[in-house]
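Q: Could you fold this chain for me?
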Amino acid sequence: MSRLASGVVLVTAREPALSDDGPRGEDVGMTATAFLSVSLDPPLVMVSLREGSRMDDLLDEQPLWGVSVLSESQRHIAGRFAMKGRVSDRLLFEDVPHERGEASGALLMGGCLATLECRTEQRVPAGDHTLVIGRVLTARVPSADGGPLTYFRGRYRQLG
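A: Sure. Below is the predicted structure, expressed as C-alpha cells.
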C-alpha cells in the first residue's frame, strides 16, 4: 500500500467539556492519509483511525470534527501531528495559524487548500482501524494557492 499515493489531511476535534459550567476540553489533532470522499448526496467523507488511538476514542464520544486539507507548504504541520508519544496537543497548535469552526468547534488550519466540518454518521470497525463516516456540515476553500501535500512510499511529497 506504500505505492498508493494519497492526500494528507489534519483531522481535529475538541474534547467535550467536563461539566456544563467547567472548562472546555483540549483541542486534539491527528495527521491522516486514509481520507476520502464517500458520497456527494448527501455529502459524506471517511477517515480511517487506528483503533484505540486518542482520535478514535475522542470521535467515539465527540460527533463533531474538522478536516484541513494540507498544502505542499504544510509538511511541517503533517509531521508535527503525526508524532507518537507527544506531550500536549495544545502546544502543537500554538504557532500554527488556525480558526475555530463555527459548526464543529474544531480548529481549522489557515493556509490549507480546503476545510471541512463534519458530524459522525457511522463508525465501522475494520480490522485494527475504525472507519469514521462523517456528514459534511461546511466546506470552504480558503486558499487556492499551491498544490496538495501527498504521501507516497513512506514520505511526504509534492506533485510536479
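A (continued): The chain has a mean pLDDT of 89.
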